[in-house]
Design goal:
Layout: H1 8-15, E1 21-25, H2 35-45, E2 53-57, E3 62-66, E4 81-88, H3 94-97, H4 103-108, H5 112-125, E5 138-147, E6 150-158, E7 166-174, E8 177-185
């Protein structure tokens, strides 16, 4: 799968980030030696900073979400940050998702893979004092199924407190993958 297989314009519209870019490659999967460096080299080749991206990979696929509107070098700030996660859908079971959520949160989510990847992407989008130590400290909710393969979600709380930033995510199911994109705004 590559970014061409995904209707990314719909995701950019939902996240209200018109210049977002998604880059996916099978050779960036963790089964390939040097996959981390290959992703970093691609980012630098495009003349962007690691502060402008969120990286994710699994065994057979890796990639990054890039927002050129994030000022280079400001990743420590949690203003207008982004997060991205991808997983093989079948690898995320209910017991696995319960490691980072409670039963009520999992019951309200469309699937275990949706909840897991959304929490990972949300966690990556948080920076500074709002980033919790554990994924289980994030509460996501207000799920909305938009199409048969796409749903949205919102950040409800961080460690039991209402966050100062608004978090909104989009989860897609493509082939045997679940991909989540999260945008955080102050």
């Amino acid at each position: 799968m590559t970014e061409a297989d995904i209707n990314f314009s719909e995701i950019k519209d939902l996240l209200q980030r018109p210049r977002l870019q998604l880059h996916l490659r099978p050779e960036w999967g963790s089964q390939h030696s040097g996959f981390r460096q290959a992703i970093k080299d691609d980012i630098q080749l495009k003349k962007f900073s690691l502060s402008q991206v969120s990286i994710s990979h699994e065994q057979n696929l890796g990639g990054y979400l890039l927002d050129p509107d994030i000022e280079a070098g400001t990743r420590h700030s949690f203003v207008n940050d982004i997060g991205f996660d991808l997983e093989i859908t079948g690898r995320v079971s209910r017991p696995v998702a319960l490691r980072v959520s409670n039963i009520d949160e999992l019951t309200l989510a469309p699937s275990a893979a949706s909840l897991w990847t959304a929490k990972e992407a949300c966690f990556k989008s948080l920076r500074g004092p709002e980033q919790p130590q554990l994924l289980s400290q994030l509460e996501l909710g207000q799920w909305q199924k938009k199409t048969s393969h796409l749903e949205t979600v919102q950040l409800i709380s961080v460690d039991g407190k209402t966050p100062s930033s608004t978090g909104f995510g989009v989860v897609i199911h493509q082939d045997n993958y679940t991909l989540s994109f999260f945008s955080l705004r102050s």
